[in-house]
């Protein structure tokens, strides 16, 4: 009994130290970052104080500096009814961005849209009140410009799409093109995702250990990568019509955890792991997220080749092609860190994992709002993106660039494409 008590005491001390600023102060997290790049910015515990680990971007900068610059622009956000997608869309709505929310569930999508409309009305009302009282503190609690005067009448449309279904994505994209009427698409947030699949979620009759989409594609890969790729193929012309198009993918540090082949480039290879590795293994999720980073780099290369291929030409049409390609920032697959979002509730972990995780989720994870900040940076901080030529990069919270060596393989980028 005494041994058990000592063990519990020891574990309590370790947990207490971990939750304290001590590891940051002695440089432990910086050492971990050098040894394990995937760990950078993963939890707020690694960024206790701006004096120790400065945030690369803050809500003060978003609402106080960049908000007005995106007013009146157009954005599409997939997976916008919950989690990070919801927070992205809400923050954009508060800045007067016209939105299309793309969700799998139409009822939840409509509910999210209504909440966003109410939120923008409340922000406008609060801002006017602050102005009248001579107080211009912004949402982050720091001095800055209030956004109330930037929120006018905005449009929030909802559309339904199942990203695992090529037919659904095709119908969604074609309907969006009609509904949009040729208006430039300034920001495309490819955010929706599916995590691990457990045995009870695999339809009867499908290959053991492997849930497939209706098109016969491993469903995690189909949702996280293939569906978003097809959306891009349809909407690329609208993004190029923007003065500065931004495409932002929500990737993950799980991209460091994948199969020996890194990313499958054929259906045979994609399904070859099913007999030995169940779909509950996070390597399937990691593979799809690495594919997103490879995709961001490949599209960036393609856009650059468009510019180089027309650089010696002349005439108005050549200039148009060059300008359109050069002004698109397919910038970067981003890892928002470990975020306390709805994805944990549907991940179907064993019950004992939830028993341990749920009590401390708020303490060790970023909020969904904080998790959205790096993505908002790549959508809204247009001057910084332009000045620093931020293209084809991969970030962790909060706007810390990380290099995943797997994603640097240009042959793999080409084969995947």
Structure description:
The protein has 17 helices and eight strands. The protein is α/β, with parallel strands linked by helices and 417 residues long. The N and C termini lie far apart (60 Å). The model is unreliable at 48-52 and 134-151 (pLDDT under 50).
Roughly how many Å apart are the termini? Answer: 60 Å
> What's the main sheet like?
8 strands, mixed
Spatial shape: globular
Low-confidence stretches: 48-52, 134-151
Structural class: alpha/beta
Query: What is the succession of H and E elements?
Result: HHHHEHEHEHEHEHHHEHHHHHEEH
Q: Kindly estimate the percentage of residues that lie in beta strands according to DSSP.
A: 5-15%
The total count of helices amounts to: 17
Instruction: Identify the quaternary structure here.
Output: single chain
Q: Taking Cα atoms only, what radius of gyration do you get, to the nearest Å?
A: 22 Å
Order of strands, widest sheet: 3-2-1-4-5-6-7-8
Mean pLDDT: 81
Helix content: 40-55%
How many beta strands in the DSSP annotation? Answer: 8
Which descriptors apply to this entry?
globular, eight-stranded mixed beta sheet, 417 residues, alpha/beta
Offer a concise description of the structure.
The chain is of the alpha/beta class and 417 residues long. The chain is built from 17 helices and 8 strands. Strand 1 (74-78), helix 5 (83-94) and strand 2 form a beta-alpha-beta unit.
């Amino acid at each position: 009994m005494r041994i058990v008590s000592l063990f519990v005491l020891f574990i309590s001390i370790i947990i207490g130290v971990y939750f304290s600023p001590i590891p940051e102060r002695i440089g432990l997290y910086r050492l971990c970052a050098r040894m394990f790049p995937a760990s950078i910015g993963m939890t707020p515990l690694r960024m206790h104080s701006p004096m120790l680990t400065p945030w690369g971007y803050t809500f003060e900068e978003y609402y106080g500096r960049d908000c007005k610059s995106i007013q009146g622009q157009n954005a599409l956000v997939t997976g916008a009814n919950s989690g990070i997608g919801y927070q992205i869309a809400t923050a954009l709505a508060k800045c007067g961005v016209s939105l299309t929310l793309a969700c799998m569930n139409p009822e939840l999508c409509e509910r999210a849209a209504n909440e966003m409309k109410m939120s923008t009305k409340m922000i406008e009302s609060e801002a006017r009140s602050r102005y009248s009282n001579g107080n211009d503190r912004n949402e982050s609690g720091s001095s800055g410009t209030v956004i109330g005067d930037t929120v006018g009448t905005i449009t929030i449309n909802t559309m339904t799409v199942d990203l695992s279904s090529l037919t659904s994505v095709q119908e969604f994209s074609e309907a969006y093109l009609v509904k949009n009427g040729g208006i430039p698409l300034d920001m495309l947030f490819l955010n929706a995702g599916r995590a691990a699949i457990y045995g009870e979620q695999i339809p009867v009759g499908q290959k053991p250990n492997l849930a497939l989409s209706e098109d016969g594609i491993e469903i995690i890969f189909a949702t996280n990568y293939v569906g978003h790729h097809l959306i891009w193929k349809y909407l690329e012309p609208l993004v190029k019509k923007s003065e500065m198009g931004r495409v932002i993918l929500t990737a993950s540090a799980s991209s460091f955890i994948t199969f020996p082949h890194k990313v499958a480039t054929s259906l045979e290879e994609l399904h070859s792991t099913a007999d030995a590795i169940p779909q509950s293994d996070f390597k399937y999720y990691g593979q799809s997220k690495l594919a997103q980073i490879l995709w961001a780099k490949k599209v960036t290369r393609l856009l650059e080749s468009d510019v180089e291929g027309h650089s010696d030409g002349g005439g108005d049409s050549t200039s148009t092609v060059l300008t359109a390609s050069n002004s698109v920032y397919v910038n970067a697959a981003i890892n928002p860190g470990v975020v306390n979002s709805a994805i944990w509730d549907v991940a179907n972990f064993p019950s004992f994992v939830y028993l341990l995780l749920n009590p401390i989720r708020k303490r060790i994870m970023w909020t969904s709002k904080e998790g959205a900040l790096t993505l908002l940076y790549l959508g809204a901080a247009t001057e910084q993106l332009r000045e620093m030529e931020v293209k084809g990069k991969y970030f962790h919270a909060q706007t810390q660039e990380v290099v995943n060596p797997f994603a640097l393989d240009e042959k793999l980028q080409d084969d995947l494409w």
